[in-house]
Amino acid sequence: YLTITSEVQRNDLLTSGYTETIVQSRRDTILANKCYGRSSIKIPMSFSNEADTLIFHYSSISRNDTIIVKHKSFTFVDLPECGSYQFHELNNVTSTDAAINHIEIYNPKVNYDGNENIKIYFNGIAE
Q1: According to the model, what pLDDT value does residue 110 have?
Q2: Strand order in 51-56's β-sheet?
């Protein structure tokens, strides 16, 4: 079978005998650009995936670092009239070692308080 991917419904294809299947397309790519000299960054987490991938590109070395954060997501309702929040619990974090010495989970509970959750220790060779 031939698969055609389209952002919108194509009536011309439907009248020609094709069928339409609705699939969820991920649009959760975040770009944190030029974080030079920062001691912290805030990045949203995915609520539909069990892991998030962060890629660090450095201007002073040719290799990138990849960090994989595995987590469980759950819905939190403080007050019904306020709606719900998506909280996470960090299970595991791993990274490559181009410029990262080691990485650790500092606080596994991710919520709306803005606490520090992951600590990244760099080896000092990258900018």
Answers
A1: 94
A2: 51-56, 65-76, 85-95, 109-110
